[in-house]
UniProtKB/TrEMBL annotation:
Protein name in UniProt: RNA-directed DNA polymerase
Enzyme class per UniProt: transferase
Span of domain Integrase catalytic: 357-470
InterPro entries, sorted: DNA/RNA_pol_sf, Integrase_cat-core, Integrase_H2C2, Retrovirus_Pol_polyprotein, Rev_trsase/Diguanyl_cyclase, RNaseH-like_sf, RNaseH_sf, RT_RNaseH_2
Signal peptide coordinates: none
Amino acid sequence: MSYFDIIVHGSTREECQHNLIASLDQHQKFDLHLNQQKCLLFQEQIKYLGHVNEFNKVSKSQGKVCGHASPKINRRCKKIPGNASTITTPLRHLLCKNTIFKWTSACEASFLILKQAIASDKVLVPYDPDLPVQLACDASLTGIAGVLSHIYLFCCHFKLITDNQPLTRIFNHRATLPKMTAGHLQCYTAFLSGFNYTIDFKKGIENSMFDCLSRAPIKINSYTASAINNEVKQLCDATIEQLSIPTVTYQLLKEEMEKDATLSTIMKSLQEENTSEPDYIIESGILFCGQRVVPASLQSAVLNKLHQNHVGITKVKQLAHLYVYWKKIDSDIEHLVRSCSECVAIKNSSAKAPSHPWEEPEHNWQRIHIDYASPYQDHHFLVVADAKSKWAEIVPCSSAPTSKSNIEFLKDIFSRNGFPEVMISDNATIFTSEEFAQFCKEAGVFQKFCAAGHPATNSPAERNVQMLKH
């Protein structure tokens, strides 16, 4: 079910009435309903989106600015916009070193004058389509705030300012979304893709206006605020129950979180609204930082659950970022996967360095490669392969080959094909013996040996050996 506001206007009462009747006809046509208690008819002034709209005039709603409560601690006083130096003098004195924070009548008067100045027409200007549009926003533990310079974001290009520098890369139109991006950030990216904007980073201290507003939200009892809070609560509740580990239950997670010294300190500071960890929230007694935070005592069980299917480091990280969070979770995942005995056993060997290919001979039988296929079907086979024509000669031998028998086989082959210029073989004794070396010298054959332990360097002969066996 959707809820939206409708404003019907006219330059005269008669024109406004005519437009109102036309609007109601369209509502009846499409079966749309209005809340009679919220309908205001023939108003000369309306309050809408924090502004008061009337004939040829737009001004700030005093009630919105007046809802900004006085700061009670030094840290929040820093968030007050400090451009009006004279007005803010009593407030800035509270920020001096060795000064006890004490909210005096002078501070209260300065604060009230500052709110009136923000609500005055000197700050608010009507929309000008010729000027650039800028949207500056910020979020804190207690609220979300934004300063919108112009309102027609779908029609105009605008600048989006944030004090979160990583978001400038994630929400950049020209940047590729990182693989490890959390699911909710991917949803935000999809939503923002419908706008024409440029994102820019500015430090929080330089964005005092919206940083101040986000930390002092107005308490409202509207349907929208209630719906958002209910949605956040339902999301947190579902997230708590999502990770199905029999040994890690909601109650156990809550108990171990209270025992963890670091997490309990963060939770206490959040409850007292005096924390330096703005990314954390508490829901149903569980600490969240995007996802549920896992105390140190349960991290081992969660890691084993995430890696139970023995997927790689990247897959485990992607899965972990959907469900859990703790500091240095990525390094813990890397250590777990690299030390997993089952993963190491099936890990692919490092890529082999490419072997240098033999030069192509100029003519047939210029270079030959020889090797033995042995033993195979109770026989040894001498394989001689020509590097140019790929012609192969195979000689069977019923007994173990020797240098003498090897020479006799080659003499028979050379009698049909001639003597080669170069002969390549491995470092077997029958090829390196003095008798065989003398034979090659007398025949005018230059003998070369392939690299020890690398049969691929004698690939023409090895290829024929494999073909023979299969």
